Amino acid sequence: MEINREGYILGIESTAHTFSIGLADSNGYPLDSVSVAVRPLKGGIHPREAADHHAEKAADVLQKLLKSNKLESKNFAGVAFSQGPGLGPCLRIGASVARTISQKWDVPLIGVNHCVAHIEVGRKTCGCDDPVLLYVSGGNTQIIAKMDGRYRVLGETLDIGIGNMLDKFAREQGIPFPGGPKIESLAKEWIENNPESKLADYSLPYAVQGMDLAFSGVLNAACNLIKRGAPLGAVCWSIQEHTFAACVEVAERALAHTSKNELLLGGGVACNSRLRNMSEVMALERNAKSFVPERKFCVDNGSMIAVLGKLHLKHDDITDISNSSVLQYLRTDQTPILWT
Ligand code: AMP
Ligand code: MG
After folding, report:
1. Quick check: CB of 163 below 6 Å from ligand 1?
2. Ligand 1 atom closest to Cα of residue 179
3. What is the number of the ligand 1 atom nearest to the C-alpha of 118?
4. 85 and 148, same domain (yes or no)
5. Which residues contact 114 (CB under 8 A, 6 or more apart)?
6. Are 23 and 306 in contact (CB under 8 A)?
7. Atom number of ligand 1 nearest to Cα 184
8. Does residue 268 line the site of ligand 1, with CB under 6 A?
9. CA spacing 20 to 30 A to 82: which of 21, 54, 70, 329?
10. Domain containing residue 142
11. What is the tens place of the pLDDT at every residue in 47-87?
12. Is the distance from CB of 330 to CB of 83 less than 8 angstroms?
């Protein structure tokens, strides 16, 4: 296939609850995505049900995106999709949609690493160069930095993702998915109304384990605080203070270890103002700079997939259909980084 490096890239994201199609322009800059997400009324995300939802919505999402941007197939140079990591049934819908578009439009197919996409959309939109990424999302919590041509995971959660912990705690309290934003507002309200509060009164386990993190103990302990009569707002506040401090502590150690001086936030939990604020303070204290993408580029979105697709395409790194199976357990450091 003749590779055309000019034109838009279509990016398809379907690793978990969100199905999103977005765009990168011919300079590799992300534009707005069209996204839909499953919101289970009860319990967590069921991978098969989420996949059915994505399959049902895919055609509408694509039509809406093309129409609102006045684009058609001839404007595109490639179609990128999240090849992994993620929930198998959900990933397979995105991959199938991408293969179909690639064949029909006769454009290259580009399978990309979802975690790397969070980094590259941050670098592109925030203008940072060589950051330590604090990637905090529903399913993932990782501290990542580039070394020897790969993004290396310097620390990560040993059990559940921080967003998953927030969502599970919220669900136990009858707060619907996603719980993170509501926990943020309850925490803010609590500390504004109770400025004398002490964390020691709502103590939770220390989530740092060497360079790694662990959140399921925090989740249990927080639920127990509620059972013992602690106010919901106070526990939300304590969860945020304890777990965000843990993430920021590991990120700080990663900055020290790598001698880098840029911190980048990514993932849905990076929408949280308290986490943004803690990261900024830590960076300032060590003469580093903290960067946070716009919220629409923090949450899972198709445009970040397109941004990474563009980088692969620039290096003729396209995916043959025979290698386009989804990679549920793809690791951040399995993807060679060909660009600077
Ligand atoms: P992602 O997996 O990257 O799409 O992000 C989804 C996760 O981000 C969910 O676990 C949400 O609860 C969490 N989230 C979204 N907004 C916030 C917020 N303002 N504070 C904390 N967590 C949030
Ligand atoms: Mg994500």
Report:
1. yes
2. 12
3. 3
4. no
5. 13, 15, 82, 83, 84, 85, 86, 300, 305, 330
6. yes
7. 20
8. yes
9. 70
10. 128-294
11. 999 999 999 999 999 999 999 999 999 999 999 999 999 99
12. yes
